Recover the amino acids of this structure.
């Protein structure tokens, strides 16, 4: 076994306000500390060594030509542990967690029970041949990103400085992961609330990096390509221009970003946040765009919580162009979808939505936007 590297050997400054330090965990995984100032990170992972999880498999659904990942080892992952057993809190006293240090700002590390795992250079996605398509290993990469060492809270309750640190960490992760073998698409996201399947109540998100184009991205890419071929324009640019022109569905905006309920929203409360000057992915955001993001991000999440004065369960997804295709037509945007439609009532994906993919809404986007804009926000 190789010697664990020292903090000095693995610390570097990414820009004037973010420092990254890499450490090895006891099973060979890497943990990456992101700090707003230079910080010594020398804590060792003192947990007993465990065998890494085995790779799952990919099977093709031939009726739709969609890949399905199977990861049976995830059945045994942590499920709603109490605070005193939270694996995403810092290591303190007798609690030995995924984060060896006793304090941190933002950390990203390889998932202990990944749905997708790195594969060797010999791995290749099988050629599609209907029911005879070969099964293969579930290649890819899964990481966890923790926003805070505080167990309670959420992304929206973070300080503006911490939100900026998170978005810069996501930019760094996107850049590094995109260069890895077999990675086709990098997808950062956050789930909040047990209603949408959260299994650990600690402020955190995840980064799934796929070895194939996901169905939604493939459909978005085909649609954007067809629109560009017909008009010569980028589809999301025209979508944002239409929302700005209509005005009624915009819930927040600043010099560099605009937040809006989309014209054909699929969820009771759905907000899209896009840069005014579009980019393909997080790595292309300018420093001005990065610095302007925390204010609008915090505003829209506080709007959600203020609609019914309860913490809203949501899924927040970064849609960005794939690593090597579609970068001329697909554009970065942050999609926040909330399943709560009224106090004590959830929007269930029932027969039409689940079986047919045909969404039916009880609330118009304009009504949703009005409720969001009516929330008094104090940053």
């Amino acid at each position: 076994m190789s010697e664990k590297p020292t903090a000095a050997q693995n610390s570097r400054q990414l820009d004037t306000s973010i420092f990254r330090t890499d450490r090895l965990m006891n099973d060979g995984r890497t943990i990456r500390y992101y700090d707003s100032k230079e910080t010594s990170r020398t804590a060792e992972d003192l947990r007993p060594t465990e065998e890494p999880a085995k790779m799952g498999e990919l099977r093709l659904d031939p009726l739709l030509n969609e890949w399905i990942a199977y990861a049976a080892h995830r059945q045994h992952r942590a499920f709603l542990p109490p605070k005193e057993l939270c694996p995403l809190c810092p290591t303190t006293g007798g609690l030995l967690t995924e984060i060896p240090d006793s304090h941190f700002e933002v950390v990203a590390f390889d998932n202990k029970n990944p749905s997708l795992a790195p594969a060797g250079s010999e791995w290749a996605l099988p050629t599609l041949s209907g029911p005879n398509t070969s099964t293969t290993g579930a290649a890819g990469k899964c990481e966890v990103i923790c926003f805070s060492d505080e167990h309670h809270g959420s992304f929206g309750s973070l300080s503006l400085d911490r939100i900026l640190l998170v978005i810069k960490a996501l930019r760094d992760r996107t850049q590094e992961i995109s260069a890895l073998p077999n990675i086709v698409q990098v997808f950062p996201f956050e789930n909040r609330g047990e209603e949408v399947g959260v299994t650990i109540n600690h402020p955190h998100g995840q980064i799934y990096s796929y070895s194939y184009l996901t169905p939604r991205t493939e459909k978005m890419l085909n649609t954007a390509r067809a629109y560009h071929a017909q008009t010569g324009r980028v589809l999301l640019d025209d979508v944002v221009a239409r929302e700005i022109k209509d005005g009624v569905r915009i819930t927040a905006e600043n010099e560099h970003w605009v937040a809006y309920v989309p014209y054909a929203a699929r969820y009771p409360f759905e907000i899209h946040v896009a840069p005014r000057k579009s980019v393909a992915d997080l790595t292309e955001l300018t420093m001005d765009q990065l610095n302007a993001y925390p204010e609008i991000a915090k505003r829209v999440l506080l709007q959600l919580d203020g609609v019914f004065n309860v913490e809203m369960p949501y899924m927040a997804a970064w849609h960005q162009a794939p690593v090597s295709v579609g970068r001329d037509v697909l554009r970065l945007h942050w999609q926040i979808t909330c399943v709560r439609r009224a106090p004590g009532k959830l929007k269930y994906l029932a027969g039409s939505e689940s079986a047919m993919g045909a969404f039916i809404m009880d609330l118009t986007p304009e009504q949703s936007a009005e409720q969001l804009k009516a929330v008094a926000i104090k940053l």
Remarks:
- The chain has six helices and 17 strands.
- The first strand starts at residue 11 and ends at 15.
- The chain has two domains: 8-213, 217-373.
